[in-house]
Every structure is written in structure tokens, then in C-alpha cells.
Amino acid sequence: MQEVSLTRENTFPNLPPRTSKDLITKHMNNIIIKDLSLAYGDKQVLKGINQEIEEKKITAIIGPSGCGKSTLLRCINRMNELIPDVKISGQIIFDKMDIYDSNTDVTEVRRKIGMVFQRPNPFPKTIYDNVAYGLRINGLKDKTKISELVERSLEDCGLLKEVEDRLHTSAMQLSGGQQQRLCIARALAIEPKVILMDEPCSALDPASTFKIEELMVKLKERYTVIIVTHNMQQAARVSDTTGFLYLGKLIEYGNTKKLFTKPKEKLTEDYISGNFG
Amino acid sequence: MRKIFKTGTPYVWLTGGTLTISLLMIIGLIILIMVKGLGMFWPHKLVQYTLQDGAIVLGEFSKKEPIPHQKDSYRTKLKVGNRDVYGIDFRWIDNAGIVSQEYPKTALTIERREWGNMYGFLKGMRQDNGIKPMELAEIEPLLSESQILYKRIRHIEKREIGKINHKMEKYRLELKRLMMQQPSANTEKKITSIKVKMDELEKSYSKKVDMLTSLYTVAKEKEVVISLVDGSEKILPVFQIIRIYNPNEMGIYEKSCFYVMKFWKFVSEEPREANTEGGIFPAIFGTVMMVLIMSIAVVPLGVITAIYLREYTRDNIIARLVRISVNNLAGVPSIVFGVFGLGFFIYFVGGGIDKIFYQDALPTSTFGTGGILWASLTLALLTVPVVVVATEEGISSVPTSLKEASCALGATKFETLWRVILPQATPGILTGMILAMARAAGEVAPLMITGVVKLAPSLPLDGYFPFIHLERKFMHLGFHIYDVGFQSPNIEAALPMVYTTTLVLLLTVLVLNLAAIIVRNKLRKRYAISSL
Known about the structure:
The complex is a heterodimer. Chain A has helices spanning 8-11, 20-26, 69-76, 106-112, 127-137, 143-156, 160-163, 176-189, 206-219, 232-238, 256-261, 266-272; strands at 31-40, 43-53, 58-62, 86-94, 97-98, 113-116, 194-198, 224-228, 241-246, 249-255. Chain A is an alpha/beta fold. Chain A has a single domain (29-272), classed as 3-Layer(aba) Sandwich (Rossmann fold), CATH 3.40.50.300. In chain A, the strands form 2 sheets. Chain A has a 6-stranded mixed beta sheet with strand order 6-7-8-3-9-10, sandwiched between helices. Chain A has a 4-stranded antiparallel beta sheet with strand order 2-1-4-5, with helices on one face. Chain B contains 15 helices and 13 strands. In chain B, the strands form 3 sheets. In chain B, strands 6, 7, 8, 9, 10 and 11 form a 6-stranded antiparallel beta sheet that branches. Chain B has 3 domains: 46-132; 139-224 and 232-249; 281-526, Orthogonal Bundle (MetI-like fold). The chains are: A alpha/beta, B alpha+beta.
């Protein structure tokens, strides 16, 4: 499947063009999930998922607890491989490569598909070093370039103004919402094409949640955003497309408005009307 | 009754009481060591007893105890010194036999280079035709003069002759190597040139020896006459005196200054008289250096093992077996490690090194005999389980979310390990190191067969290339305690030394640990994860 040779060196982000026009012509690829199944040991979690995720849209995955939505999300950047005893079959195709091909460099996949976790997890380093971490890991040595990229990422997340005067203090002193936005900035710094968000607001207060939702809408211009949420209002507010996952199966997948107003499936209707879950 | 148990009070008393007992035992131990050990430097008063049989004795009061099986009778142990005259340092005196007791103002304690302390009265300076009376103050310039002389002699003996010996040994080895080669014109030439050089060295050596002889004659020139309490007189060369003082006339301030000065001498000077007098500096130095070398060896070994066990293996039977074995290594008696160190490090590795790199010196072993390197490595093996366990704990305490965050940014496993996990686990690693250091500093048994000696002629660190001599034998505080306490020719006189050395060992361990703890706390603050 691998058509382009992908090394860290030749794909490393040079300061890219900022106009959206350039970006649109550059990123003409969706994520295609084909027959994806996953089991932890004997427990089958995902059962034959087929889905195409459009680029530069916000796709929400909803479903009751334990339905496998986080697992599905973590399949997209191969994070599930960190867990021992996991079996995965099927394909995920993105950017002309099969993510699960044995020749695919997993760090390359993760560099292109960034992730934000349920609980803010900044490194116990300074704010600056947190954002610069990904850049340094990927071999960027030029100090002026690093600080340029760090500042830009922080600004994109609306965090720069709040932390400008304490960039070199510990990230642990930030509030929960700020920490989560720092984590988003950290993911953006290495310029991925896709951002996965695993219930990013579940540990935050409403005001911080609002800020992050605003940010997601802004990010849509440049990135494909996939968000897992148990909060249906949030999915309805921010997403363009929504998928409803139930017991490891993708029950319904389509335009958010349609899914919430006229669901095709009985299960979906029951779930969004609050009959279970 | 049941009601009382239900309230839980008895359990509080039980647990609290146990804690108290443990604390009391520890505090008692430390107090015992301090009381017995710290008194060593205090200038004790000299007491003079007149006995019923008319004999007069002078010495330091040591202790008083009841005579067994006799009611209300006591006896006193007196340190009478003058071992060269009386043969023994201590004398038991029945209190019933004491007629009178006084503290003579002019009684002197004289510390000598040989034969322990002398107690007596200064009579005067010996001259050709008799004795010239002198005051105590007059002896001070003579003492500082002889001190300078002593330093000069030591310098010649240790440094200058040492240098000559060092060079001589080098030439000797080279000569031996050349002799073994095929004889040719070239080697012949080299051999003769080396022989010339050796002759020159020999000459300068005999010059130094002559110098020493003349210095020793100078040293013997000035002598003082000390009258002992029993009326006899003793001639004592000034050179033999280290210090002379009058404890019955000293005030508290003077005594305190004396105490501090003696303590400093104790930790900074070399031992004398089969370790029973003088200082313990080489032992402190050896202990600290050995512990540091051990730390350098054990930390990488333990940390890398722990990383493998925690991050790279799956949790299967083999990994579990390895973990159990590593943990059980901590329970193996330390002498077993000593035997292993002797067999593996000294005979196998050291012997191998000798055969490859130090062939010229054979049959004299260089690395094939006990030395500080082998002792340190043996202790590193002994303490590696501690480091492994602590590091594993440290690594497992790093939150998974941080590992995931790093991986999600495209970091490889090693990058995550190096940049996120290890910095976070550093306090745990240091905890392991602290425990390892504490264990290693106190261990004696394995050292006795891997390189500790009673008296090392030179420190493992000196001014000759390559400066750090890892093959050298060394002295160790723990072994020093054993040696002074149980192997010394004059155990009673050396007893306070045992306690003081113990105290210094405790202090050394404390200082080493404190340093590591300060570093750990600094790091812990830096990597503290505040909860949300």
C-alpha cells in the first residue's frame, strides 16, 4: 500500500503556507476505515467498522459507555498497540498509506495524526518545553524555528496571551482548561493532518468546555477533527458528521443534523432521546 | 473486656509501644556509641593515688566498679600508660587500698609516636654533663622544630623515595621485557641505557638514604628527662613526642579547643601503632571512594535491568522468574558475594587482565589480587537488587497518560523512555542508590577477601599517573572497627577508638545519604505532578 517513501526528514513541517487555499489543495485525503475489528484478548470490542471520515470536517463519535468509541479513535493512530494482548484486523487508509501495513512507520502515523486525551496530560516540564517536545523529538534543532512554531501553536489555541509572561514556568501550574488547550497546542505544533480528541472536555468546567469547542470549530479550517464524546449536545453543537457506535458496531453514520433530527435506526433514536445509555 | 478491645485502644497502645521500643533501641545505640566514642578526645585529669603499700600511681581515671562477690567494695581501673616501662596500660586498684588521692598540678600527659601515652613530670633537658632544668613552655619550640623534622623525613620517605621506587619499577619491568626479546644490537643498546639510568637512580636513592640517616641522628640529639611517679627517670627524645600537655591545669575553654583539634587530627591523619593511635583518614577515604565507585557501577546496571523488566518484556513466567531471582539475590549472605568476587573478578577477570596487559610484572599480580575496583564491583553485585526494585517502582509510578502523550507525538519507545519516563523515575532511582550506598558502606565480610587491608601503604588516589589506582588495596571504616577492636595488640587502650570509628562510619554513611537525598528532593520538586 505504501506509495510514498515516508521518512521523518522529508515530511518534517517547514513553516507551511498559512492561506487556506494552499491547504485545501494539499490535503485531499479522507480517512477510510475498512472492516476494522479489534479484540482485547477474548473480548471483541470492535466488530467490522466501515467508515469514511471526511477531511477538514468535525466528525463526532457518540455512543454509550463501553461501546468502543475510544478504542475506535485510538485505532486511527495505532495507540492501541501500547496495550498488550490486542488483536486488530482490517485496514485504515490515510494519506495514500495503510496505517496497519507492516512497512508503515508507526511514529510517522502518529506524527500525522495527533491526539488529545480525556484528561489533560501535560509533561511535567515548562509550558514552552511541552509544546517544543514534539518538534525536538522529530529532529528540529533550529532554536528560532522552534520558538516560532511554539508561539504559533499557542496562539492558535488562544493560549499565548494567557501564558506569554510565564512560558518557562511549569505547565503544572495552569488550570485544567488551560492544560487541555496546551495539550492541543502540543499536538498542533508538529502540524498533523488529523486531530483525534478523546472526550477532551469530560474533565473540564463549562467555561473551559466552551473555549475548547470554539477552538475545535476554528481548527476545522486546517485539520480533520475526530471527536469522541458522551455529550450529545456537544456532538450536535460542533460536529458536521456523527457516527453512533453501539456494542462495537457502527449503527448509523451521517450528517449530524439529520442524525439528530431524523435518525434512520431505532437504536439511534432511542439513544439520542435518552431511552438508554 | 470485649468492650475495651472494641474501642481499639489496646491496638493503639500495642502499635505505639512497639514503635517506642524500636525508637528507644535505635536512640540507645546511638547514645551508647556517642558516649563511649566522643570521650576519647577529652583531656582527662591525671589522678595520683598513694596506696597502702607505699606505692604511688599516676594515671587517667578510667572506671570504677564493684568487686564481684564482695560487699561494698570497689575497685578502680586506672590508665597508667608508660607501656614501655610497666608493660601494660591499665591497672586495677582496690579502693580499700587507697590511702590518699590528689591531682598534681605539674603532671603531664605526653603523647608519643610509639608506646602510647606517658604520664609523668618534666624534669629537664639532658645535656652532656647532666640535666638542665626547664619549664613546660620551653619545650614548645622544640616540639614544633621536631614536627618540621618529622614532616621532612616523611616527605623523603614517602614522596622522594617513593618516586625513585616508582621509576625503578618501571625500568625494571622494561628491562625484563627487553631481556625476553630476541637479543639484537638495538635491544642491547636499550638495555645498557636503562642500566645506566638505573644506576643513576640507585645513586640518588643511596643519597636519600644517607640524608635520612643524618636526619634521624639530628632527631635523636635532643632529649628530655621525664621523672615517673615511682621515682624512676626516663629519657625521651623530643622527636618521639607528638604533644605534651598538662590536663590538671587546663580550663574548660582550653579543653574544648584541645578536643576540637584532636577530633580534626583523628579524621585527617594516618593511623599509628597498628591502628590503635593516630587518625583514620585513609579508612574514611577508602570507604567513600569505594562507595562512589560502587554507585557508578551499580546504577547503570540496575537501571538498565529494571527498564528491560518493566518496559521491554511482556509479563510472562520468565520475566517473573527473573524478578523473583533478582529480589532473592538481596537475601544471599554477603560473604557468598565475596567468594564470588574473589573467584570471578579477582582470579578470572583480574588474572586475565594481568596476563594481557601486565605480563611484564608477573608473577606479581596487578589486578589479579584484591583491590578497590574488585571490592566495589562485588558490592555493586550485592546491591543491584535494591536498585532494580526501586527503579522498577519508580518507572511504574510514571502515569500511563504521559507515556501515551509522548507516543502520540510520534516519539519512539526509546525516546519516550529517555525523555519522559527516566526523568520522572529519577527520584525512584536515587532512592535505590541511597539504599545501595547505605548497605555497601556498612558491609565488611565480602571486602575482607576482595581487597581491604589493615594498613594500606598508599591511597587509591595520588599524584602518579594515572592518578586513580583502582588495583590498589584500601582501608575501610567497617574493617577498621573489626581490626582495632578484635585484632589489635592492645585492645583495652584501643576500645574508645572502636566507638569513635563507629561514630565516624555512621557519620560518613549519613553524609553520603544526605547528599543523595538532597539531590532527590530537588528532582522530585522539579518533576512533581500536581493533581487536577
